[in-house]
Recover the amino acids of this structure.
């Protein structure tokens, strides 16, 4: 069985053209099916009523269109919704839908769990289970279109569970599916990949011709502090990450989570401003969500605003991110699937290493 949802739209079309040719059917049938993968998704072949019944049955014998099962759906007072998807092997992932005026941003997961163990992140505390496949990542968007009523997604952020650039093998084709007009047709500038700074992945992303956006989780302006907060800094130190941001051909965003008394002093603002100026980065200050952040406390709103002014005074463009979905534990860094008989966390050495195709 061929899973059509693991293929690029162009590859799926090729397979389907072959299939219909062998069945002595006209080639336009392939385009009919391709449209029902992502653009106007069908839950299964049976529902493709524009095709004769015998063709639907023949397709179902050869191809599959796996669904992601929704195990739970929660709605926040601010309209944010969190979905828990159960995967075929029992793993679970979360996806968050964030409405904002006429935009709807979907925050998607790229791995089940995460190997990186950032000190303040709930997903990191779960440990790493496995990489998601193309159909599991793009499927999160597809499932939104299959809801009744459907959720129309306008923007995508890879800020759910996992480190997208440690699963480049699947994220790379997923970006094509999201952006391609015969996939979801979401503009590249409306798709943001957030990373701790996985260098080979940043280079691979930069080599793509589309204007996908890059956000880098900086969180500390010096190696000493960053290492304490983000163990990955040992492998990809700050100077190298800044250099990668400098040569990236589009403007980068720095994410900076505000940790009370840890990284929120004026001296940190001055150092951060220096780094941001070096690569012309825009800085996004993120209020800490205490969910998984053992031992950390949030910076006060007043201090966050002062920190923002210090950055601005040092020539840096800055925004303070609004917290959304806090009441349903759907905010940044709060995604953590509770599971029975939790396994001990596995370290980064088990993540299959960085996969850059
Ligand atoms: N692995 C990627 C993407 C997932 S996390 C990355 O680290 O960038 C998305 C963002 O949420 C990151 O900037 C992450 O550092 C931040 N985050 C993690 N835990 C958080 C918390 N408790 N409060 C606020 N932001 C958090």
């Amino acid at each position: 069985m061929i899973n059509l949802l693991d293929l690029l739209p162009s590859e799926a079309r090729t397979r389907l053209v072959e299939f219909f040719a062998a069945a002595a059917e006209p080639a336009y049938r392939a385009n009919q099916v391709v449209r029902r993968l992502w653009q106007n998704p069908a839950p299964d072949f049976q529902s493709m009523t524009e095709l004769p019944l015998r063709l639907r049955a023949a397709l179902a014998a050869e191809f599959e269109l796996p669904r992601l099962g929704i195990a739970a759906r929660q709605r926040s007072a601010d309209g944010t919704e969190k979905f828990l998807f159960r995967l075929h092997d029992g793993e679970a992932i979360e996806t968050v839908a964030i409405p904002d005026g006429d935009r709807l941003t979907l925050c998607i997961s790229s791995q089940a769990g995460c190997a990186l163990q950032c000190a303040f992140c709930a997903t990191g505390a779960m440990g790493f289970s496995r990489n998601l496949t193309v159909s599991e990542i793009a499927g999160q968007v597809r499932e939104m279109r299959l809801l009744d009523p459907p959720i129309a997604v306008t923007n995508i952020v890879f800020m759910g569970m996992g480190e997208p650039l440690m699963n480049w093998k699947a994220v790379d084709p997923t970006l094509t599916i999201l952006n391609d007009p015969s996939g979801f047709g979401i503009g590249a500038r409306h798709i943001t990949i957030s990373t701790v700074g996985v260098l080979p992945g940043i280079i691979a992303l930069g080599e793509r011709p589309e204007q996908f956006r890059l956000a880098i989780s900086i969180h500390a302006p010096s190696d000493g502090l960053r290492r304490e907060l983000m163990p990955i800094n040992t492998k990809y130190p700050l100077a190298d990450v800044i250099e990668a941001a400098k040569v990236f051909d589009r403007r980068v965003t720095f994410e900076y989570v505000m940790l009370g008394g840890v990284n929120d002093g004026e001296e940190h603002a001055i150092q951060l401003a220096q780094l941001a100026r070096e690569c012309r980065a825009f800085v996004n200050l993120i209020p800490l969500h205490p969910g998984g952040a053992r031992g950390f406390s949030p910076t006060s709103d007043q201090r966050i605003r002062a920190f923002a002014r210090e950055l601005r005074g040092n020539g840096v463009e800055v925004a303070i991110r609004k917290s959304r979905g806090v009441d349903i534990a759907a905010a940044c860094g709060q995604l953590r699937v509770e599971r029975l008989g939790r396994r001990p966390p596995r370290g980064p050495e088990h993540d299959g290493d960085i996969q850059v195709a």
